[in-house]
Amino acid sequence: KPLKVDELTVLLAKRGKVLRKNGHVTPDLVPVDELVAAIEAEELEPWYQPKIDIASKRVVGVEALVRWPSKEKGMVFPDAFIPVAEENGLIDALTFLVIKKAADMQAHWQKQGLSLKIAINVSMDSLYDLTFPERVVSYLEKHRVDPTGFQLEVTESRLMDDLVGPLDILLRLRLKRFSLSIDDFGTGHSNLTQLRDLPFDEIKLDRSFVQGAAEDERAKSLLESSVDIAKKLDMEIVSEGVETLEDWQRVEMLGCDQVQGYFVSRPLPGDDIPAWVEGWPK
Ligand code: C2E
Ligand code: CA
Ligand code: CA
Ligand code: CA
């Protein structure tokens, strides 16, 4: 007989693993000293997942998703080290390493005639650091990179825990002309009034709703009301986790502007992006 979830939780907890809300098992966490060494040696690498504008079918940008290609462990995914970085004061260094490599990659693509906006995942921890906006901008200026080529993604759930603290920093980033996106939208239960006061220009619908909407009425109505809110506030709406043609058609019908997901492409190494864009749509 199949294991019930609580038995499974106990079983995994004994092995030092944790079960996430959505039922996915997180991998063993990377030890802090190994992460420190990997960041110092600049071994972490962003991979890039294309974002497609539904109306024009054009590639409008990419999301940078960090990986650690470790010589001993093979490819290590962010779930195994982002929490470690956040808990040990390493997330700022990690973010800057990703921004640095992404800025270099963008310049490299530009030389091949390819201009792509890059979305960077920013931890909420950075939104309590008043020096963060200045430091990002001066870093980019030093490397002659324009902030309008970057988008910053912040997850909704943690943002809604405290809106007052981060607001000042979000406004500063917006003034520096970064575009701002709310990630995993639908998981944080924000309302129209809260969103109106925040300087975001895009929401990314969480993939659990995008995928759940096929069978689940609650996910579907949540998706509909999210789109409704975003439209009222004149924000771009992106669907993440679009895995099938049916997913694409459903979110298109709901009024989404952009899609991202395995149906279009998995995240790719930066060097593979120009050829991929060249071949899109297949
Ligand atoms: P996220 O920002 O919500 O990113 C989307 C995740 O879904 C990525 O996992 C991506 O590879 C995966 N994905 C994309 N399309 C599909 C699809 O069609 N189906 C399914 N099932 N999955 C899809 P990944 O790369 O493992 O990243 C996991 C999370 O780690 C990210 O979730 C983000 O919260 C965090 N993360 C990744 N890179 C960074 C970073 O540079 N900095 C910070 N602070 N967090 C990062
Ligand atoms: Ca993201
Ligand atoms: Ca997301
Ligand atoms: Ca997500």
UniProtKB/TrEMBL annotation:
Q: Which GO BP terms apply?
A: phosphorelay signal transduction system
Asked if the keyword Isomerase belongs to this entry, the reply reads no
Keyword Phosphoprotein tagged: yes
Name any one GO molecular function: cyclic-guanylate-specific phosphodiesterase activity
Q: Which UniProt keywords apply?
A: Phosphoprotein
Q: Which residues form the EAL domain?
A: 28-281
Q: What is this protein called?
A: Uncharacterized protein
Region of the whole protein represented: 116 to 397 of 404
